[in-house]
Amino acid sequence: MDTTQTAHAATRSIREVPALGGLHHIGITVTDLQRSVRWYSDMLGMIQWMDEQYPGGRAAGLMRPGTQVFIGLDSHDRNAGEPFAAHRTGLDHLALAATTRAELDAWRTHLTGAGVACGEIAEHAEPVPCALFTFADPDGIALELIYIYDGS
Q1: By the 8 A CB rule, do 73 and 26 touch?
Q2: Domain count across the chain
């Protein structure tokens, strides 16, 4: 199949799939729910809006006020405390967006000032012009803050 046929097939299949309104939330399995709730609150300015016990575990719903960023933290009774590993099936990393380049710098300053180990800010021209840095939560879950240049 050539490039034109591939693009046409992709367009046709998108039209056949119902619409999505966006990403509502992501659920992350953690080893210590309360520690993670504190960390995401202190480091990312999130507030807990939900606490749910369910068979085999507990979940805390967090949100960043004034945004559409929602993260669920799940603690499963069967979790044996294995460390996070991006190479296993499941979450590789979670990327959060900064609204300006200066905000990206401010985030890195905030996180490093709070003792969070962060990578250096990397500038990329491809596949889209952006700047980003990486860091991890208390379970070692890979996180990223990214600013995509808008061309202005």
Answers
A1: no
A2: 2
Q: Tell me the two tokens of residue 76.
A: 């499963």
33/44 same-domain check:
yes
Beta-strand pair 57-63/70-76: antiparallel
Which tokens belong to 2? 């050539």
What DSSP assignment string belongs to 70-123? EEEEEEETT---PPP-TTSSS---EEEE-SSHHHHHHHHHHHHHTT--BPPPEE
Tens of pLDDT, residue by residue over 3-29, are 555 555 656 666 788 888 888 899 999
**149 shares its domain with 92:** yes
User: Residues 39-73: pLDDT tens digits?
Assistant: 999 999 999 999 999 999 999 999 999 999 999 99
Long-range contacts from 17-26, C-beta under 8 angstroms, 24+ separation: 22/68, 24/70, 25/61, 25/70, 25/71, 25/72, 26/70, 26/71, 26/72, 26/91, 26/94
The radius of gyration of the chain's CA atoms, rounded to the nearest angstrom, is: 18
Range of the domain at 88: 83-152
